[in-house]
């Protein structure tokens, strides 16, 4: 089942680590949010990244859609 | 008519067989096919073999038409032993009129509670019920005949524990949410009333999983402490939970042998924690090293993951852990995490279980959402509870420790034994934030001015600085953490009362 990953808290997008189409392992960081001075990795259950809905430097709200991953 | 002994034995055996038949073979077979245990099988899994003594086997509905179709009146009740210790149990038998509640079955349940209170042992609920039974409880006379004066008076004299199976509405839900520990079997639905009734009452079409499924109660409401896949796992979780607790609040928790190789990972403990305070790690991996081998029993693992709570053993003793987990939300403490922490304080204080705080947090999670969720009220609720705790409290600061959350996490003389890892950094806020606020510069706007300001703001924030005013009792090598805790549990043991606290939190609400 396609995995939709949303922001767990309000944050800024500090770094985007992969591009759509990339295969990622379970618990491999896809992007890193910055909030409360913490670098908070966004991870999936593993698969192919089909969409990255945000870009570096963007401010995201809690619950906002970040990444879509198709399990491989 | 007189009967001889053999005739009496035969009559009794027949009556017993009928009472043991539950809702009949067809219903029982359907459950078995679905992979679910029935009420009597659940009881058999719970108690040590041959120790169950049933009370109320011959109870039935008092509605004449239902007398023969209500064996045990839908609730199997009695006492038995769990790892040799007594407990009473109420197993809702869903195959008998949906385990609905009637005056007789309510009397049985009340007896189990009274017994447990008077004799000082736990009550186990196997919840699965449609709610009240009609016509047994109906109309003014039905409602007016109920006696609920002390039904939900929780004084936490002895533990209540519950497993939620199948549909749990009405009292099946009440007992689960009022318990000290509740485990939820996937596929169950816990709610005030059924999806059908909700749909009728509110013209809302509701899905049962959305109304009260495992995701709702495991991750959103936090009303249950654990989610499992099978009935047998649920019963095993209850047995395990009780192994950490005393039978009642007037005795100390049981101790266990310390498994060999416990603490073996302590030499490498620093490798679990990145040096940069901005980087995350999973605190549960650190906890697994500190605790006795395989003794971590995590509670509410799907709810407020940014704060880990667990029962563990350290040096063979039961300990309640409240730990920040930087892996989630960077370890920032939000409203749900506050509720989770208070829950743990209340349980540990009520049952003489010492508390351990493992601290690595960037502060309370501030923002619009937090304020709307009453974070200010919850921070102080936590402080009120923390100040009422009388069991030993041990604090270990690992890395960063900022703001009011420093106090809530067992700082500022709120704990009895306090150590800081030599890597700790303590201040009113992250020095990087402090620099931005006090000097009005960011690393991007003016790198040099930021660096100067940062040097100023970071001054005096080390473990040795807080130790210089006796704000911590010891600065420790992280590898010594387990030994520090074992010694602290000895030194701060409540010797005058054999480990029994004052239980000032025992009347705290069961949900808040």
Automatic annotation (TrEMBL), chain A:
Q: Which InterPro entries match?
A: Biotin_carboxylase_complex, Biotin_lipoyl, Single_hybrid_motif
Quick check: keyword Glycosyltransferase in the entry? no
Q: Which UniProt keywords apply?
A: Biotin
Q: Domain of life, per the record? A: Bacteria
- Gene3D superfamilies, alphabetized: 2.40.50.100
Record's Pfam families? Biotin_lipoyl (PF00364)
SUPFAM superfamilies (UniProt xref)? Single hybrid motif
Looking at the record, the residues that make up the Lipoyl-binding domain are: 1-70
Q: Does the keyword Phosphoprotein apply?
A: no
The identity of this protein, by name, is Biotin/lipoyl-binding protein
């Amino acid at each position: 089942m396609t995995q939709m990953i949303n922001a767990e808290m309000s944050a800024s997008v500090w770094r985007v680590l992969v591009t759509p189409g990339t295969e990622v392992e379970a618990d491999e960081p896809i992007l890193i949010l910055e909030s409360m001075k913490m670098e908070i990795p966004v991870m999936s259950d593993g698969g192919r990244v089909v969409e990255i809905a945000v870009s570096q430097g963007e401010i995201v709200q809690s619950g906002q859609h970040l990444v879509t991953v198709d399990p491989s | 008519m007189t009967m001889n002994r053999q005739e009496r034995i035969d009559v009794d055996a027949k009556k017993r067989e009928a009472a043991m038949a539950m809702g009949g073979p067809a219903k029982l077979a359907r459950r078995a096919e679905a992979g679910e245990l029935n009420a009597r099988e659940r009881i058999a899994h719970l108690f040590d073999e041959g120790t169950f003594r049933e009370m109320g086997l011959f109870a039935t509905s008092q509605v004449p038409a239902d007398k023969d179709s209500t064996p045990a009146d839908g609730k199997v009740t009695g006492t038995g032993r769990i790892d040799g210790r007594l407990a009473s149990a109420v197993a809702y038998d869903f195959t008998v009129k949906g385990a609905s509640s009637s005056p007789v079955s309510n009397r049985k349940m009340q007896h189990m509670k009274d017994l447990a209170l008077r004799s000082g042992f736990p009550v186990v609920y196997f919840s699965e019920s449609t709610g009240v039974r009609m016509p047994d409880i109906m109309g003014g006379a039905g409602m007016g005949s109920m006696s609920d004066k002390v039904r939900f008076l929780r004084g936490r004299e002895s533990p209540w524990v519950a497993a939620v199976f199948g549909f749990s509405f009405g009292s099946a839900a009440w007992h689960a949410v009022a318990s000290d520990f509740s485990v939820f079997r996937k596929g169950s639905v816990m709610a005030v009333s059924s999806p059908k009734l909700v749909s009728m009452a509110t013209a809302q079409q509701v899905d049962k999983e959305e109304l009260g499924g495992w995701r709702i109660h495991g991750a959103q409401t936090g009303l249950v402490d654990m989610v499992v896949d099978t009935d047998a796992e649920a019963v095993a979780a209850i047995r395990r939970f009780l192994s950490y607790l005393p039978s009642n609040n007037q005795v100390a928790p049981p101790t266990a042998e310390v498994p060999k190789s416990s603490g073996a990972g302590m030499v490498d403990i620093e490798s679990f924690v990145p040096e940069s305070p901005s980087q995350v790690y999973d605190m549960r991996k650190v906890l697994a090293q500190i605790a006795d081998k395989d003794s971590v029993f995590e509670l509410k693992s799907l709810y407020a993951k940014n704060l880990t709570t667990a029962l563990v053993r350290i040096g063979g003793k039961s300990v309640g852990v409240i730990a920040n987990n930087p892996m989630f939300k960077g370890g920032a403490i939000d409203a749900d995490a506050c509720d989770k922490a208070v829950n743990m304080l209340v349980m540990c204080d009520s049952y003489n279980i010492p508390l351990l705080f493992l601290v690595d947090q960037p502060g309370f999670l501030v923002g619009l959402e937090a304020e709307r969720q009453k974070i200010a009220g919850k921070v102080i609720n936590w402080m009120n509870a923390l100040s009422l705790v009388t069991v030993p409290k041990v604090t270990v600061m690992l890395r960063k420790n900022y703001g009011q959350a420093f106090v809530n996490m067992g700082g500022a003389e709120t704990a009895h034994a306090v150590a800081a890892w030599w890597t700790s950094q303590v201040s009113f806020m992250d020095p990087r934030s402090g620099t931005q606020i006090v000097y009005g510069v960011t690393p991007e706007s003016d790198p040099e001015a930021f660096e100067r300001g940062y040097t100023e703001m970071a001054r005096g924030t080390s473990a040795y600085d807080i130790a210089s005013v006796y704000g911590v009792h010891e600065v420790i090598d992280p590898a010594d953490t387990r030994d520090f805790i074992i010694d602290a549990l000895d030194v701060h043991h409540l010797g005058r009362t054999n480990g029994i606290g004052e239980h000032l939190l025992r009347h705290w609400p069961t949900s808040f």
